[in-house]
Amino acid sequence: MDSCRIDIRVRYAEVDRMGVLHHSRYWVYFEMGRTELLRRRNVVYADLEREGVFFVVAKCAAKFLAPARYDEVLMLTTRVVRTGRARIDHAYELKRAGDGVLLATAETTLACVDGDGRVRALPPAVADAPENT
Amino acid sequence: MDSCRIDIRVRYAEVDRMGVLHHSRYWVYFEMGRTELLRRRNVVYADLEREGVFFVVAKCAAKFLAPARYDEVLMLTTRVVRTGRARIDHAYELKRAGDGVLLATAETTLACVDGDGRVRALPPAVADAPENT
Amino acid sequence: MDSCRIDIRVRYAEVDRMGVLHHSRYWVYFEMGRTELLRRRNVVYADLEREGVFFVVAKCAAKFLAPARYDEVLMLTTRVVRTGRARIDHAYELKRAGDGVLLATAETTLACVDGDGRVRALPPAVADAPENT
Amino acid sequence: MDSCRIDIRVRYAEVDRMGVLHHSRYWVYFEMGRTELLRRRNVVYADLEREGVFFVVAKCAAKFLAPARYDEVLMLTTRVVRTGRARIDHAYELKRAGDGVLLATAETTLACVDGDGRVRALPPAVADAPENT
Lengths: 133, 133, 133, 133
Known about the structure:
Four copies of one chain form a homotetramer.
Chain A: E1 3-9, H1 26-40, H2 45-50, E2 54-64, E3 73-83, E4 87-96, E5 102-113, H3 124-127
Antiparallel strand pairs in A: 1-3, 2-5, 3-4, 4-5
């Protein structure tokens, strides 16, 4: 069970003319989820980049079930669903904190690359995560 | 054959620390593609909204094949792949203008809703598009 | 003394190619500061808008003294410096939480308008704030 | 007379709940103005960065006179107003293309720094601009 839950309040600048969170911003939240999931394992993504380890999004998909509105607090659950030699798949569930309504689900596949964009193996701290053992 | 090609230059504020277009921004480009595709049919999306017709993204998926970099000019091709009573599916191809390399492909499903977020039929100007006849 | 301090962690999608917070994003943070300052007075900005009270930025100025970096936690202090019949001036100080270094200072002037964009008097809940008495 | 005019269409993802361009996005447009002004002089900012020359915004100020709306085409005029050993001041005027109404004016001061963030002299291609002779 390797997952992480964070709360995020929707910012004014993130909603569109309909008053709802623009679909492009969900990916920013999902990225925050991944950062915090790593931090729970004592891995700081900023440090990984300093050591030449980068994660790039290779594939993503999402379903938007209900709108998120300005100033609402959302609960994002991020978990690793699969880890390969040089890739990690995450799944996301975004709920409204107030009533627990599910707003969106998503999945991403990250590729691990070096500073020149060449595929490289996951660093041990990431590859040896609990869900792989 | 109902598609539309637009050129987009990657802005400084759109690239991340790796110097490449952040994956969240592609969706902003794809939305621009949809707006221009409508305009080719003499439909202005801003007018639709004034008449109480809104499109919300219900589903999306993308593959990122190669990075887009700051100041590069990209060619985005947007086309309608399917139209239902209250939904439209689009497909997108994003290439680098300089050498034609394919950078990303994506698909979205839009739902047509009214001002209160209730599903409604596509307006005739959108439903009667060439690809549906 | 009517001010409010919030902590904000810099998101990956907010930094640019130089690895530092893009200057356009500071305004998003300052807006968050204003929202939280109102909340401390039990005013929810989303409610104000529902009642036809909108604040628009009429003027702004900032000095950027030192860069804010990805994943750093920042401390933002927001305070009201002046209130007129239909305007509020705020001042902002953004520091790095780790060492207290001052990163940026800024000021904004907000105009209070109705749903049609016409200037209107501040609502009592905002006008009668402690700093005006 | 060293200035440059570009047209920019307001994107859906750039307007807020009021349907108007969010004040944080103007800075993205002004940055585009600077990039194009350099390009007119055959200077590509991406190349400058590759050579270790970076411009950082040290100071900025803006007045927002009238709202810019989704899908409107705007005309941005960018000009250099002053050049120092290691700094450049720009002024901006943003008008609505349709009727020429002035929407915003702004000024920025950029500092020229090297890859480590240390102040350095402007490169000759930028310092020797017509307005300095």
